[in-house]
Amino acid sequence: xxxxxxxKLLKEKLIHMRLSSGLNVYVLLKPGYNRQFAIYATRYxxxxxxxxxxxxxxxxxxxxxxxxxxEHKLFEEEKxxxxxxxxKLGAQPNAFTNFNMTAYHxxxxxxxxxxxxxxxxxxxxxxxxxxxxxxxxGIIAQEIRMYEDxxxxxxxxNLLRGLYHEFPVRKDIAGxxxxxxRIDKETLYECYRTFYHPSNMALFIAGDVDPEKIFDQAEKIxxxxxxxxxxxxxxxxxxxxxxxxxxxxxxxxxxxxxxxxALGFKDEDSVRDGDRLLDKxxxxxxxxxxxxxxxxxxxxxxYEKGLIDxxxxxxxxxxxxxxxxxMTGHTQEPENVADSIFNEIVKRRSQPWKQEHFNRIKKKKIxxxxxxxxxxxxxxxxxxSMMFRDIHxxxxxxxxxxxxxxxxxxEFNEIYRKxxxxxxxxxxxx
Length: 430
What we know:
single chain, alpha+beta, 2 domains, 7-stranded mixed sheet, Cytochrome Bc1 Complex, Chain A, domain 1
């Protein structure tokens, strides 16, 4: 059944169709745009290392990094490499795997429907052999070693290992060299059958395109491959995460010119539905801007003292079963920066920000959200990411406008505590 959604303030029109295969297809109409963007994604990421395969009763544990490995392998078909097909059509393909999602996408300025054929085709045609799986292990092992030398990657995952005791978000998305060498074609096919069913996936397209043609095209390709089937419940298994952080400090020495730090705060609110999660995403985005955004007193103080520079950033990550806030950048004095932030947090508990400051930041966030729709890539990826968290992106603005000062302060008081924090730093070799 087709559903048309319009937002008068955003002046955006979104059309949704759930296909007979269970696949949700969304088309964001952008009249007059010369570019098109399509993303085909599955709710399956590196965190999904323990699950019960479809048709079985007993759970299995698969090697770390297999979701990322599977992403790599789908681009290689029996008849050749998918990148060559896109090149002939003048399109730019790419893909990514994160903790909770794997996505394949392309940008085009012509031949859109031919490009869509390629996208729906190769993602639906896994081709794994003992030989090509073994070959891929060497390629991904090189990628893993490259990231091991990346200080920004290291400071981030060191932080997550400090914040979390057991939850798989503490593990590298690509796995380890040891774990990927335990991957075989049978396990890849098992993961594919479980997580790449259309009912666990979404197709989102933005541009000046014909929705009916897209729905018809997707229906024919997907039904031919998967048939008409009901949605399947996937039994994902996650370890129980202990309260508190695993470590409050993690330091590593690498060949860097300047130290890098990441101060994280673990959100102990571990299970959230879509509405609760949306509130948390909005509230924490506002909190971080008030606490240490570029217009905050704290930012000015640290910047004037030379303790942070333009590399500094902060953000909140919120998912169904976990969440954390991160403040990161270059500094010569990681401990001093952390102590200054802790002091500011204590101060703001007794001397909260003025209501006017909250109102100003809220208006800023409304403007940022509206501007999101100018980028086909950003709005498409954000929509699918939100959808997999049971959040509709078009609901974001309404909730943002409705959120109150007291709700934001409550979130600040619950999460931003020293006992919930870990400081990760990368410092130069001695």
